[in-house]
Structures are given as C-alpha cells and as structure tokens.
Amino acid sequence: MNPATPSLTTPPQSTLDQWRKNFLDLNSQKLASAREQLSPRQQAVLDALPVLLHCNGSRLPGYVAPDTPCGIVGFTPTLEHHSAVHQFARGVQIPRDPGPRVIEGIYLMGSLGSIAQSRNSDLDVWLCHDELLTDVQIEALQEKCTRIEKWADGLGTEVHFFLMNLRDFRDGQSRSADGEDCGSSQHLLLLDEFYRSALWVAGKMPRWWLIPEEYEYRADSYWAELTAQHKIDVSDWLDVGSLPTIPAGEFVGAGLWQLNKGLSNPYKSLLKILLNREYASAYPTIRPLAWDFRKQVQQGDADLLNTDAYLLMLKRLESHLNDDEAELRELIRRAFYFKTGVCLTQLTGNQRQQRRVQALEAQINEWGWTYTHLDELDRRQSWPARKVMNERNALVTQMLNGYRALAGFSEQHAESLHIKEQDLRVLGNQLFAAFRAEPGKIIDINPHIRSDMEEEKLTLNLREGIWQLIPGNWKPGDESGVLMQTPSLIETLLFARRNGLLTSHSQVALYPTHNPVTQYELRSLLQDIMDIPMPTKKHCNFDQDQQPVRWHLFVNPGVNPQQSLSRRGMQKISNRDDALGFSSARENLVQSIELLTISNWGEWQVSYYAGDATVHDALLQILNHRSHVTAKGWPEWHIHCHCQVRSVAIQKRLEELLNDLMTHLSLAKPAPYLLQTGETFHLLEYRRKQVVSHHAESLAALIQLLARPRPRFRRWQLDQHALPSSPLRLILEQGQGDEWHVWYWRQKEKIFLYVMDQCGSLHYQEQRGSDIRSTLVPVLRVLRVLNQRWATDQDQTPWSIRLSELIMDPETLAFSAEGRRIPEEAHQNAAIHVSAVTAPDTPMIFHVQDTCLSQKESGNHLIRDVRNQVLQARANSHQQPIWLSDIVIRDNYHLTRHLQLRQRIEHLLNQRSKVQNAAATIGRA
C-alpha cells in the first residue's frame, strides 16, 4: 500500500451510511451470538453494565459517591436495560440525566460472539473515558468499576474493566505487564485484535469503520475531509487509532507476552504467536487481519463466519503452512478446537442448533477428523500424564520456535523495541522461570491442558540406581508407563507433587519389595513434601533478580548411614556421637543430601550431593546467598531426615550447624570458619561477596592450610565439634594477633611446637626428645633475630613474643594453656652463627661464623660442606643437632615461610647419611 496517495476522494454519503449500517448489523448479530452462550443471570449482568456505568445511584451496584464520574455519551437506557437493572435493584429509579458524560465508549473485547466463546469466557470491558479526566477522577471511576466487578462476581459473572485514555493509547502508552492487557509491548497488534473482535456496547463508535483501506495511512486527513464535507457527525465517532501496519519493534514484546500467557492458556497463545510470526514474515507489507475483516463488512459480504476473529486467524495460519509442516498443522487445529471449548462428541440438548457449533462441525468435516479422533480430544481431561507432557512439549517447542523467529526478525529490522524496560525484565524473568530447562529443575508439564492431574495410584520403581515415576497401575517390566526418571528420589516425588499427580489421597507403591527406602521413611517424606506450599503467581516476584526464598534439605533419603559400621560391629562402641564424626572412626553419617531450592520466581530446583563432601557442598550452596541477605534475614529453611538410624541426631546436628554458620556469616566481617566432617576439614571464608572454601583431607593437610600467609589477623571460628582432643582448637580460638605466639606441648618423647604470627598464620613442627629448653631456644633465637631485622627494615616496633605451654587433661582430653617465661638463652646469640640466605631464582648462600659457602661453589655438596664447617667450628660434641641462627628470604616478610624453610634446611643438615644431593632440593624451597 502506498502511503503517498496524491489526493483524497471521500465516498458518497450513502456509502458511509451503508458501512455504518453493515457494522451495526454485524455487531448486533455477534452480540446475539454471544448471549447464546451466557446464562440468564450473565445476560442480565451484561445488559445492566451500561446503566451502572451511566448513572450514580446509591442503590445501584458499584455506587461510590454522587460525584463519581459517569455518563455514557449518546446513551439512553432502553426498556431492556431497565428490566435488567430491576432484577438486581428492585424499584430503583434510573436518573434521566446523569450529568456530565465522561464515558465515550464501551466495548467488549476477547472471544465473545466468536466461535471461540465458551461458558467460561470473561467479559473484558474497554471503557474509553474523557481524555481530560484528572487522576483523582480516574481513581474514583476505577473504584466504581472495581465494585461492579465484585458485584458481578457474586452473580457468577467474571467482568474485568480496562480504563482507556485513548490519547495515551494512540501514543503507545499502555498498562504495565502485571495487568491483563499486553502491557507496553504491543500497541498496534492489540489495536488489530480490537478492530477485528471488539463488540460495541454503548457510546461512540470507532471511526475506523468508515475509513477505506487505501486511506489507512492518511486516516487523519481523510477524517478531516469527511468533517469538512459535513458527511459525519464527529460526536458519534471515536478515534481509537489508525492501523497502517505493524511496526517491527512490537514483535519481541508481543512474543514475550504471549509466551507468558501461554502458561495458563497455551492453545490461544500458540495461535497468536504464530499469527505474529506470519505478520513478521510479510514485513514490510504486513496486512493485518483487521483489514480483511473491515473489507468484508464494507463490501456487504460479512456474516458471523467470514468475519469471525478466530476463523480469520485459522485461515491465515493454514494458508502459510508448507506440506512438510503436517505436525504443526495438526497442533494448530487442535489449538483452535480446544479454544472453542466445544466437545462435539458430548453435545446435549439443543447445543447442536447453535450457530457456532454448526460452524465448528463444518470446519471439522473439512479437516476430515474421525469420530475416534474427536472422542480422544474430547476426553482431554482424562488424558494420561505422559500424553499431557508430550502435548506440553509440542506446544512449548512451537511457541519457543515462534518467539525465536520474532526475536530474530526484530534484531534484523527493529531499531528499538516497543516495550518498557521494566516490562521486558518482568516478562523475560517469567519466561526464564517457565521454560528454562536444566538438570534438577522441576518442570510444569500441565499448562492447563488438564484441569486436574491427580492420580489415585503412583509407583516408584528403583532400577539400577534410577528412580522411575509411573502413574496408575503398573506391572514390573513395563517401560511404557514411565513418566520420568532420575537418580534423585526427592526430585521424583517433587515432580509428582508440583504437577498435581501426588495428593494426600494418592497411594504410592514401592518396587522392588526389598528397597533401600522403608515404608516409614516414604510416608514421612511424602508428608514433608505435601507440606511444601505450591507456588502461586501472587507469591512470585519477577521484578527482582532470581534468588532463593526457601530451602529444604532432605538428608540420607533411602540411605542407611551406619551400614558400613554395622558390618564391622562398631555402631555402639564409642561415646562420640557427633553425626559428622561418629564413633572412634569419625564416620560422617551424612551420606547424601538432596537440596530443594525455591526461588522468588516460583522455581523448584533440586541439587544432589553425595560422598565425603556432602555437607560442605550443600551448605556452601546455601551460604553463598550471603551477599543477598537483607534486613529480613536469611530465607526460610527446613531439614528433613528419616533414615533408618540416628535420624533425629543427624537432623539436630545439621540444624545447629546451619544456624551457627548463618549467624556467623551474618556478621559485618565474619572470621574464617573451620568445619570438620569425618577426617576432612573445610575452611570457609567470606571474600568479595562470596563464600570460598578450602579443603584439607587430613590433619596434616589442615596444618599446611593454616600455614598460608594471611594479609591480616582474623580470629578463627570453629564448629563446636571440630578438632576434638586436638591442641589446634585451643590455639586457633586463643590466637590474639599483633604478636608472635609460641605454644609447645610435651608428650612422651616428642615435643610439638606451634608458632602463630601477627596475622594468624600458623607454623607447626614436631621433634623427638624431652629437653624442652634445647628445643625451644633455637626457635626463639630465630624469632628474635627476624623480629629485630624486620622491625628495622619496615620502620616499626618489634612484635611481642609470647610463650605458652599446652597441657592436656587426661580425663576430658581438653587442652589448656599456661604462660611461660622465655629462657634467658633465647636472648643471647648462638655459640656458632649459622645463617641461610636465599631469593627466588638465585643460588642459596650459607654463613657459618665468618665463612661463606655458596651453591655456586659447592654445587650439590653445599649441605655437606655446611655441615662439615659447623662440626669443625665446634669445640666439643658432634652429636648435638645443628640449628640455624638466622634465615633470610629476600623481599619476604612472612614468618611461616621462613620457619618452614628453616625446618627443611635443619632436617637436611641433621640427616647425616642424606646430605649428598640436598642442595638442589632446598634450592627449590
């Protein structure tokens, strides 16, 4: 269509009058058809609506106040209107003149009067009001409409009012995506639907009726010409907007909107998404369906069928399908059939005489559908769950394909999207929540395909470690009835619960008979899962980013945590009852956790954890929500454990642990947290808004972890059961920072040394012998030398050095610490000065008294030469160990690194038979 038409030629008055008559006649027919599907009470509500909006009467439904805006332009109540009102308000007087008339037009939107109308169809009312109403007046009018909606709902009629400021509507401004309309996403697409499906009820008629197709691009100029020629009375007509084409920027928003509407009405949404895709494929010469509708009416060829909004849509879609799209064609036809709400094999009474039923039968005959096929479709409410899921997958696939095509089209042709950023985020989040598929996510298989999915009997079959969910009766070996399967028992049960198959009345059978899940455990799990509230739109928040709002931890489902101990007869031989370090073998009784995360978008996601790190990994997923914790605190959480043994103790232990961790991590600057499970240690730290974890598979590995240089001192927080009977617990809890602290513990013929620097890094070494003084003095001398030199290098006060002895209570095995004086010898220099100097990528140098020995000269014999030099300098016993008096690692001020290298060098110096090739080894230290 060429928008640059050179001149305007208006139709004769007779033609305009005929067009108006054609539209009004068709409108009357459609209203009559719509009334056929309404009950007498609903018909009365429909007839009363114009009067309730036209007048303010204290005895009329919807009354707010005498000055509430009302009055419909050009409307005069008829006897039918009076009769309808008097059914609900007997004797009420309807004012003849309501005063200022601010309602310019009332229209019914949607499927009313079409072949797709059903008894469940709502009355969606567009109320077009005066564009000059103030916000206060609009609020009062909205309140009036809300009260009418509530009144009608009490009479079994669902009515929704949409207040329209047509000036804003023509400018493309619409409601938000939370409303029942399209939001900001699809202005002209909505206008196209309005013109081909709206029923005029009262007020002004849309001027679009009188605009020829060729003048759609110049509607304002054409209308001005009609006005100038006095061919129309402008007070009779309403400018809802022109429809020259569909802009490319609307299609992404429209696709998002329809995908989200598809969650509750998939068949209708599929048809609209595919129509939008067909429109986009014709760009830029898009021909809206409303043009076909208007052409039929203006030509005088219109009837209820060839102008039916849904039949027009169906005809357009089928005409653009290829021969190889048979499955899509059948899906479109099913969608159309289901949208009508008619079950042709179940008609009763005079239903066959209805025009819409006859039209549908004619369409079905044209398709060649058999009675058997129709009967299967009409029994949709009893479809097996697997068929429902297959239908859902087919619908979702085609809807997503349609949306992807629209998104690709928009990327190519749209300079900008015609949708508000807020609506784009909300609709996108809803789409993500509904259609994103990933392992562990519980999908909804029934987007209102069946109204009720409840199954009287469900079977859980465990086959080679995989749980199978089978609705209805089942015989072992029959794979055809399996609806879903997964290694996770909890995921299986949640799937059944979320999709309505599992109810409190369902019977659940377990196969095989000898099953790791006991009947008691199954009943308990079913009760826990039935107590989980189902998601509702009211409780979902798509304005925000996705985040957890609730956790459920299912511990050891189908697992006997003491099975290995029972086989060894050890389940009762120890009084150590920590569930994460049970018995003398420190067995971790938590063997698996299935974690359900419920998000603010209503998603259910199951994460499965098993093995030695089960507790750590599951808790880490929860704790990493720390950065999102608000003033309201952590999300709600629950722990469920019903395993065969010690379930109460396991549940209580995990509840205490999780409470402790959440409380600790809620601090502004939480200290590192040490958790022990079995023989494994986990060090949890909060860094850069994330909880990071370091693992240590043994006590020796933990000591290496604690020796890492730290940037600043942070007091350690230990789980209440971590490091039992170990001096490390006392040391980590009592470390003060801003000092160097040396602890020693004597046990039999061994001495254990622990040195913590000012930042909390810990060095550990053990040594044979019982002479504590000869063991402590060399270490303390090195500390004194390092402390003095670093204080000078960094221009600071030397750190204080503290000495404590660790003492173990033989009864409780608990440790205490007692302060000790530093021996005088530690303040004196060693009789023989031995020092080592190293730096990255440089040979090591030793000084023994005034003699310098280097790796460059001695090569692999450096350690042997140093040892010989020390022995030569001694005046007596050669049996005394060799100690370093000083050690220098250039550009390094980490105490633990110096002490580690010192320990390594001293070990080599005192290994008399293994000094030959040691130089290369320490060179890499």
From TrEMBL:
Residue intervals of the Adenylate cyclase class-I N-terminal domain: 16-209
Entry superkingdom: Bacteria
Coiled coil region boundaries: none
InterPro entries according to UniProt: Adenylate_cyclase_1 (IPR000274), Adenylate_cyclase_1_N (IPR024685)
Residues spanning the membrane: none
Pfam families listed in its UniProt record: Adenyl_cycl_N, Adenylate_cycl
PANTHER family, A to Z: ADENYLATE CYCLASE
Name used for this protein in its record: Class I adenylate cyclase
Lineage, broadest ranks: Bacteria, Pseudomonadati, Pseudomonadota, Gammaproteobacteria, Oceanospirillales
